[in-house]
Amino acid sequence: MKDLIQIDHLSTYFNTESGKVKAVDDVSLRVREGEIVCIVGESGCGKSVTAMSIMGLVEEPGGKVVNGQIHFDGKDLLQLTKNELRTIRGNDISMIFQEPMSSLNPVLKIGEQIMEPLIIHQKLSKKEARERAIQLIEQVGISRAKQIVDSYPHELSGGMLQRIMIAIAISSNPKLLIADEPTTALDVTIQAQILDMLRQFKEQSNMSIMLITHDLGVVAEMADYVIVMYAGKIVEEGEVVKLFESPQHPYTQGLLKSKPVLNQRQDELYSIPGQVPNPLELTESCYFHDRCEHCMDICRTQQPKLKEVALQQKAACWLYEEALVHG
Ligand code: SF4
Ligand code: MG
After folding, report:
1. Residue 221 belongs to what H/E stretch?
2. Distance from Cα 299 to the centre of ligand 1, integer Å
3. Where are any strands of DSSP class E within the chain?
């Protein structure tokens, strides 16, 4: 499979009143054609900021992509103008968020909101766009599409609104769909239906999906490849079966202790003792050291690098430094 998007050494920082927060710190990853990559981690670990950086939605002066390249279809997204990026967002990369209400305009009818990008980016006439909107509503599993097209967002349930967001997202036949906690606000049954639907669309169109979640049940259900983030860094990554069968990083091992059950939503990821470090107080160290039962002296003073620890599996942990382990 060919790489669709390749991110190298991405760093995105935010300036806050109390200091600089390295929300994403030297992150490299790729998503191949037709692949589902899940980025998993607790809130604040940098998963959403990674997505926002790809989409060009990190706003200065508060936040800034300070380093890295994001290659998509032969272009470095970080070098594009706002307009060029907007074109890519309207055609090749789509995004859906946890709260559909925050992306929909409450005073515009559902149909108008689906039609707008079709008219702007695909140059459909109003009439064609309306017909296409009805088709799309049917495609995301909503009956009475002809009625829904003239409804307002507040008239629909959360699950239906998320389906509408998916309809808008797939309306341009994107190559990449970035979904940031798309089912977190929904109940278990609706969540399963929506994930199924995303997988079906992926299979029909060979679209790639970058799925951001804190829910390991969702990861088990959806991922081909998994990236585990902690405090702005990737601590482990690998092919999904391997990562679940033999997690190498103590953080991933902790996450998996909660044994996710398929199709069951988890509000709390797990209960590893301790807390994510304060992003303003990070020192040169393994950021997980306060919570790690294997912590060694070196873990407190030097940061381990992400390296191959098994076939198709990488981890950033001093336990896997040959020199240390084998003397
Ligand atoms: Fe634990 Fe050290 Fe590995 Fe960090 S580097 S996860 S503290 S053993
Ligand atoms: Mg988030």
Report:
1. helix 216-222
2. 6
3. 3-16, 19-32, 36-40, 63-72, 75-76, 93-96, 176-180, 208-213, 225-230, 233-239, 307-310, 313-315
Q: Where are the beta strands (DSSP E) in 17-152?
A: 19-32, 36-40, 63-72, 75-76, 93-96
Model confidence at 327, in pLDDT bands (50, 70, 90)? very low
Query: Which of 272, 296, 306 has most ligand 1 atoms within 8 Å of CB, for mutation?
Result: 296
Q: Do 313 and 242 touch, CB atoms closer than 8 A?
A: yes
Give the burial class of 262: count Cβ atoms within 10 A of its Cβ; 0-12 exposed, 13-18 middle, 19 or more buried.
Answer: exposed
The predicted model scores a pTM of 0.93
Strand order in the sheet with 63-72: 19-32, 3-16, 63-72, 75-76
Pick from 157, 165, 167, 112: nearest CA to 136: 167
Q: Is the CB of 319 under 6 A from ligand 1?
A: yes
Question: Which ligand is the nearest neighbour of the Cα of 303?
Answer: 1
User: What is the residue extent of each domain of the chain?
Assistant: 3-92+172-325, 93-171
The CATH number of the domain covering residues in 3-92+172-325: 3.40.50.300
> Helix (H, G, I), strand (E, B), or coil: what is residue 304?
coil
Q: Are 160 and 182 in contact (CB under 8 A)?
A: no
Tokens 């390296």 belong to residue: 307
ipTM of this complex: 0.96
Tell me the pLDDT tens digit for each residue of 215-248.
999 999 999 999 999 999 999 999 999 999 999 9
Q: Whose CA is nearest to atom 3 of ligand 1?
A: 317
- Cα(214)–Cα(206) distance, rounded to whole angstroms? 25
